[in-house]
Specification:
By secondary structure, the protein is mainly α. A two-stranded antiparallel ribbon has the order 1-2. The chain starts with 8 loop residues before the first helix and ends in a 5-residue tail after the last helix.
Length: about 160
């Protein structure tokens, strides 16, 4: 979902809109500037937190599990649609689009939005790998480090 962007460098540099097809119509969704994108990500975080609270529940209680599944199947798609419409702003007329678009189309639109909302995902992965590598290196015992630092290198 948030992997490498499929947008070209030219699209990124020109701030080309996201092309999404909903129903039989192709729409241009704006790529939000930093401040508005930050607001949208905050809304996304709020929605995810609310969903996680509902889905978490008490795993021992079967009715809670059933209610969580009911939420996942009935309300989660609506939350995704809400987030797409919040992102799109005035670019989409909700009543008109909802009457003709499919949930699969909204899933694709949401994926495109997520790619531009989290452009640093690849860099974050590299930082996490570097931190993990540093953690592994620092956890090596001093005896191993001193032994390894004085051992001859064979070519």
């Amino acid at each position: 979902m948030m992997g490498k962007s499929t947008r070209t460098e030219e699209e990124v540099l020109c701030i080309a809109p996201l092309k999404v097809k909903l129903g039989l119509v192709e729409y241009d969704l704006p790529v939000l500037a930093v401040l508005n994108m930050r607001k949208w990500r905050m809304k996304l975080a709020q929605e995810i937190s609310a969903m996680a609270g509902i889905l978490r529940g008490d795993a021992v209680n079967a009715s809670v599990v059933v209610n969580g599944l009911g939420f996942a199947f009935t309300q989660f798609p609506d939350k995704v649609l809400d987030l797409v419409f919040i992102y799109a702003g005035e670019a989409l007329n909700r009543p008109a689009v909802e009457s003709v678009a499919t949930e699969e189309q909204f899933a694709l639109a949401f994926s495109k939005i997520m790619q531009v909302a989290f452009p640093f995902a690849e860099q974050m992965g590299m930082v996490m790998m570097a931190l993990k590598s540093a953690e592994t290196t620092s956890s090596a015992s001093p005896a191993e480090s001193s032994t390894n630092s004085h051992s001859p290198t064979t070519l």
